[in-house]
């Protein structure tokens, strides 16, 4: 059985959404939107959020195409996950995140937020959806969904390119 804080990360080209659950795994909440920069300080900023949450597990969205194939966005997520693994202690798992952004936009519209205000929080909401999915899977199966980062070989990364 998985225990402890789970942090969810939605990696994008411009922004990274971060969410987490409480230590009892009851509820997911948004944490921050981190701007991606060319110097890589976004990796350190996300690592600091993980450390501050005392996270035991990190789930990072693996943005597969609707066909299930890996593409450029998947390569970016894997690269980010590997950089993050070098600076944090938490276990990292890659989870399928198809449609989380679509669901996040739908949730924000349902909450009454105008679409022009979505950009600031949609990545956080997508991360919340990932954490909620992870918590549901853990409750049902006793284990995390997805594939541990350590199981993604360089061959897998080449397939994503």
Description:
The chain has 161 residues and is an alpha/beta fold. The protein has a single domain (5-63, 89-160), classed as YqgF/RNase H-like domain (Nucleotidyltransferase, domain 5, 2-Layer Sandwich), CATH 3.30.420.140. The chain is built from five helices and six strands; from the N terminus they run E-E-E-H-E-H-E-H-H-E-H. The chain has a six-stranded mixed sheet, with helices on both faces. Strand 1 (5-11) and strand 2 (15-21) form a beta hairpin. Helix 3 (100-110) packs across helix 4 (122-141). The longest helix is centred in the last third of the chain and has 20 residues, at 122-141. The radius of gyration is 15 Å and the shape is globular. The model has no long low-confidence stretch (mean pLDDT 83).
The SS-based structural class is: alpha/beta
What is the average per-residue confidence, as pLDDT, rounded to a whole number? 83
Sheet with most strands:
6 strands, mixed
Q: Which strand order spans the largest sheet, edge to edge or round the barrel? A: 3-2-1-4-5-6
In CATH, the architecture is 2-Layer Sandwich
Terminal CA distance reads 34 Å
Rg is 15 Å
Uncertain regions spanning at least 5 consecutive residues: none
Per CATH, the class reads Alpha Beta
Q: Which percent range describes the beta-strand content?
A: 15-25%
Number of domains: 1
What is the name of the CATH superfamily? Answer: YqgF/RNase H-like domain
Query: At the third CATH level, what is the topology name?
Result: Nucleotidyltransferase, domain 5
The string of secondary-structure elements, in order, is EEEHEHEHHEH
The number of strands is 6
The rough form would be described as: globular
How much helicity do the residues have?
40-55%
Number of helices: 5
């Amino acid at each position: 059985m998985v225990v402890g804080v789970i942090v969810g990360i939605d990696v994008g080209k411009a922004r990274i959404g971060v969410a987490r659950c409480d230590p009892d795994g009851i509820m997911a909440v948004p944490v921050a939107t981190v701007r991606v920069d060319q110097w890589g300080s976004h990796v350190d900023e996300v690592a600091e959020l993980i450390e501050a949450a005392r996270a035991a597990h990190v789930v990072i969205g693996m943005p597969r195409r609707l066909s299930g194939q890996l593409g450029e966005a998947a390569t970016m997520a894997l690269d980010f996950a590997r950089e993050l693994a070098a600076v944090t202690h938490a276990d990292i798992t890659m989870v399928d995140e198809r449609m989380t952004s679509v669901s996040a936009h739908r949730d924000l519209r349902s909450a009454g937020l105008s679409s022009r205000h979505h950009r600031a929080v949609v990545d956080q909401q997508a991360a919340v959806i990932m954490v909620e999915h992870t918590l549901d899977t853990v409750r049902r199966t006793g284990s995390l969904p997805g594939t541990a980062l350590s199981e993604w070989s360089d061959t897998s990364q080449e397939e994503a390119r």
